[in-house]
Amino acid sequence: MSEVAQQRPIHVPVAIIGGGFSGAAVAWHLLRLHPRLERVVIIEPRAELGRGLAYSATDPSHRINVPATRMSLIPDQPTHFNDWLEASGALEADPAARRSEGRNFPARAVFGTYVAAQLAALGPRIVHIAAAAEAVDPSEDGYRIRTSDGGTVEAGIVVLAVAHAPPSPPTGLARALAFHPRFLPDPWQAGALDAVRPDDRVLIVGTGLTMADLVATLDRLGHRGTILALSRRGLRSRGHPAALHDPYGDFATDPARTAGALVRRIRAAVAEAVAAGKSWHCVLDQVRLQGSTIWNALPLHERARLLRHLRPFWDVHRFRIAPQVEEVLDQRIAAGTLRLRAASLQGVERQSDAIHVTLRDRRTGAVTRETFDAVLTATGPAHGRVFADNPVLAALERAGLARPDQLRLGIEVTADGRAIGRDGTPTPGVYVAGPLARGTVGELMGLPDVTNYAIRIAGAVAARLERDAVSDNAPTTYASARSAVK
Q1: Lower Cβ count inside 10 Å, N or C end of the chain?
Q2: Residue among 199, 234, 212 at smallest CA distance from 376
Q3: pTM: predicted TM-score of the whole model, two decimal places
Q4: For the chain (length 486 residues), average pLDDT per consecutive 10?
Q5: Which of 125, 133, 157, 161 has its CA nearest to residue 51?
Q6: Cβ contacts of residue 44 below 8 Å, gap of 6+?
Q7: Domain-located, residue 96
Q8: Is 429 inside a domain boundary?
Q9: Structural domain of 202
Q10: Is residue 407 located within the same domain as residue 463?
Q11: Total structural domains within the chain
């Protein structure tokens, strides 16, 4: 793998914008599927490929949320990461990663190291441009990508593997607490939690995976004060089962056409699983595996209904927390230093550095007032803002080459992963990898799902390259994008 500082335009058949796990997985599998492809450019401002936001965290409290045996860059070798983990010595450096039930939950940064190592093994076929993509413009032979270091990449095919938008705090909260030293709208910024003092009373807005990670970090840093985590439903992410079972149930044969029918089928399957001595976890695992079929069987209005009413319940059951993090939450709840509430913010006032918050309980309607020293946002990615916040997507939207999906989960794509333009037709040579395609694809947040979808995109790009190579009418290996601009 080589890193380049740009002096003049680079011309390549394929450029990938975003070098987190999604972009890395597309590149790795594309080069395997298309051995004649000499190189792939990845445009990523981070110093190392394969990490992205998820696997760049240096905090040892942040662990992978599924066992290492289910995290692999190569799905047909499901223990590939775990085997690397055992051989690398990483487990010896972190004894807490080993669990008594034989499952390994290392720090997320270790998985990032694993992915980076797989890309590095490809040598100069991977070209890393350590800059941010700022715009994508159509050109005669494909697309011209302008980067933050002043460089230009000319590519026939562009794969968008861009990240989620950062968390978006409630407007009233952000306005009232602007410039407060312990208001952290993006707690993932390096060193952000250092501002929280050991005895601070902390409010966390959100109760999912991000909240769990923040509590684990605060606990590791020696925080002794009280923490209140709130969300509309007050749901906490679940842990892993004591015993593993194969996925259970069938939701792909004659899939449900309504959200209500889907819920009834899931509940029935859970009851059957429990009667057979299994846990609910294996049923939700099957729902995830068959998620694309389930999602695509639902009409648009039923997808919207599912998101509106059931998404929080899905998230806390599907996206489970590592046992080490679960233990921290359990200990703090038992000690009375962590509370979870189903409530809404009714008002926020600041008096000096004290933060007074008015809350309405979701279940009783009771209104209470509490005082905090620090407020952290853990609401998860702001999917609906991705086109506004990402300059590349904003440029593509202005050019008519991409648009948000109808549910505002990300980018609208075709079944084979091509971006859909303003006029509703596929944009030639622009593919979307990663979770921002989930409005069309369905379940696309867990790493196994992201990996399998990356392989689909790599296959589609490889097939496109083969067609271009044998086309008698194509003067170059690049596909013109001019015709897509309306």
Answers
A1: C
A2: 212
A3: 0.89
A4: 66 96 96 94 95 86 91 93 92 88 89 95 95 92 93 96 80 91 88 93 95 95 97 92 89 96 96 95 93 94 93 89 95 97 95 95 95 92 80 92 93 94 95 92 85 95 88 44 33
A5: 161
A6: 18, 19, 20, 23, 128, 129, 130
A7: no
A8: yes
A9: 171-238+320-377
A10: yes
A11: 3
